Amino acid sequence: MTTMELKSLKMDLVEELLSLNDKEMLNRVKNYLKRLKKMEAEKEMEEITKEEILAGIDAGLKEVKLSMDGKLELKSAREFLNEL
């Protein structure tokens, strides 16, 4: 969507909002927009990119290599669970 199309859509929405004269309806629209924003924010937080997944795998494999070389001491599963 181009910038002009986005601005036009926003203006249409503003005009619709300004035409509403019912307080309850305006509150419902406001609450709905808040829920949409919250859902969008949660969705963005949940999405993990391919690069982030690969970076996590790479970091884990490097830790395993360092541990196998004796350069890094890892926690036991029991120590890890005790931290939780």
From TrEMBL:
Which species is this UniProt entry from? Bacteroides vicugnae
Q: What is the name listed in the Swiss-Prot or TrEMBL entry for this protein?
A: Surface protein
| Keyword tags | Coiled coil
Record's keyword annotation contains Coiled coil: yes
Residue runs in coiled coils: 22-49
